[in-house]
Amino acid sequence: MDRFRQLARATTVVVVVGAVIALAGCTSTDRSAERGTVIDLLQQDWRHMPGVVAEDDALRVSPTAMTIVEQDGGGGQPNPPVNLVGTHLITGGDVELSVSLSEVTADATLAVYDSPPVIADEFRIEPAGLRLTLEGLDLRIAVFDGSPGETVTDPQPASVEHATVSDPEAVLSIRRSGDLLEVASGGETVSSSSLGDVFSSGELWLGLSSEAGSFSVDSFIAEAPAGAALAAAGPVAAGAQPSPDGLQSLADRARPGFRIGAAVALGPLASDAEYADEFVGDFGALTPENAMKPQALSPRQGEYVFDEADALLDLAESKGIAVHGHTIAFTEAMPRWMQELPADSEDERRASAEALIDYVTTVVTHFRGRLDSLDVVNEPFDVDQGTDLQQNIWYRVFGPGYPVVVSQAVHDADPDVRQFINENGADVPGPRQDALLRLALDTNEGGGHIDGVGLQAHVYHLDTDAISADDLETTLDTFEDAGLIVRISENDVTDSEGQDAQAEQYATVLATCLRSEACVSYTTWGVDDRYDWWVDDDGDLQGAHDFLFADGEQTPAYDAVRRVLAD
């Protein structure tokens, strides 16, 4: 299409926001003393933005269907993508974003966030920000203030308005001055509302998405007036470096080859400098919290969204950090299409088996050579701490021997990745542990390639979940005698009984693991308590205190772990 005609058909959206933060390094053009700094956002980094493809002179946006399914298989909170490791903006005053859209087949959304959303297992915490959705002649203007609201899984905007765009080719302008947001179409104001402190961080994170169609972004400009600071910045983790006195460095000296890891989310790693310094400085292994679960990688059957997982792996590789993949076969965190695969007849099971194996092969092949190890089966047993296999889609399609099928498919796609079955409640001797051992051995006897087991070591209640050194030592000996290796895969410990008790439990688990040749690595299920959230029985958002860092500070548990490694 002729470039001039394409731009003439486009709808232009202009956003003006205020902020208060110092200038960082940038890629920009100073057009004139009057206009100040101008950044062409089309020329910035969009490589790891789900649903966005950078073309020669435009961005093409397609729907991703990204959602967050709850553990019981219900729900499906939308999880629209954000450009986390590409370009975000650092501002020192007012800044204007102008966007020209064309070829909108259904709906087009531009989101501007004060910070990245926090993604938990079952919900997304919506940050403060603004969403503009154009659908036909309707422009929806939704402002979020960052509060959790009544229902975390169904965040509602603090305000929402609809404006009618009489001419789809007219310029839409959204301007913020102080706490006033004004929206105009064709030079006439169609909406005016208060923003409060929505854009107070001095950072602007950008999202482009469509629920049902596609659209093109033909121009995307950020501009600040003369004297105001504006910069395009990348992920803060790029500047973080491993510490010569960090936990992994101590582990290298105490037991070469032993890895100290943590489960990590891309949002804080890309945006929170303290979090990035904590992780990169102290840890030598990374487990993606959610970015490699099935619902994240394949929201729709036959379609794959590898962008955020690839971004995590790129950051890990750039720092010399090993990656443990998590996970392949899992009852939870499955996209709706996978949950609903038919399995009643032989023909249905055959077709569903093909779909599942295609998923395994595609995912493992994509990550081949980049993973040190992988959870090929995750939490296979009853959630009530029983010993029966959950009758999930893998079980319904392949039967109780499904771990053999999955393990073989993984091996065919990547024969070098170490395979694990990961389970909770098997950290101490008992029926659950016996069942895990039998499952691993039976899988290998059936032709699988299981190298070891992951013992999650979650300690939610110290009076019932505490793991003693004697019990863990017996456990490690049991798996070693069976020819299997062990990962402490998801250790976290509550501080409900005090930080000293928390620190002691952390130290006990790590010290016992270090003494056993069968225990090859130790991972905590998170980095910093500021990102440790859960929803209580009343649906209220609660902050937990389970990790080695809290709000950027080392906890007594960190000191205890450090002493174990130093001694």
TrEMBL record:
One of its GO terms (biological process) is xylan catabolic process. GO terms for molecular function: endo-1,4-beta-xylanase activity. InterPro entries: GH, GH10, GH10_dom. Residues 244-564 form the GH10 domain. The keyword Hydrolase applies. Gene3D superfamilies: Glycosidases. The chain crosses the membrane at residues 7-25. It holds the Pfam family Glyco_hydro_10. Its EC number is 3.2.1.8. Keywords: Carbohydrate metabolism, Glycosidase, Hydrolase, Membrane, Polysaccharide degradation, Signal, Transmembrane, Transmembrane helix, Xylan degradation. It catalyses: Endohydrolysis of (1->4)-beta-D-xylosidic linkages in xylans. It comes from the Bacteria. Belongs to the glycosyl hydrolase 10 (cellulase F) family. This is endo-1,4-beta-xylanase.
